[in-house]
Amino acid sequence: MLPVSQGRSERQIQSVAAAADRLGIRVGELIFFAEWEVDEAPRTCELFRKLLPLKMKIIHCSWSGEGVWVPLRKWETEWHKENETSHPKPGQLLLYPGGQSEPELLIPCGACIFNSRFGILKGNHFATISERMDGLTQLHQSLLWQGTQDCIIEKVSAG
Fold it and tell me: What pTM value is reported for the model?
């Protein structure tokens, strides 16, 4: 990797680093892999990397439709809105900093509108599940009918 002074911008360096790893998401027997959306949400990718590894509970969404979410602790880093959406597609991971609701990671499994009891929310789309998308329906159904489960999210090497 070349230093910034040798012709690469900070954003290019982040892109190279992101290509070297991806997210691994494990819930019970289900394992998913997600690619970083560094070009669209570089600051959010950087922030989420600092939170890893995460060992939390994953919960079925009550308000957002076919999705699941992971409650997160508050973080001290400044929040930047980037690549925001309320209508993610299945597998598009959203990070929400808190405010109207608590900080969270949303994983849409099907038709989903990011919502809370206070109304529609917007989160930063920072990663997209790229492998095992077919397991999202099983994940959603499992959490709907069996309840909260353990979830591990960590960086894994690409490839």
Answer: 0.84
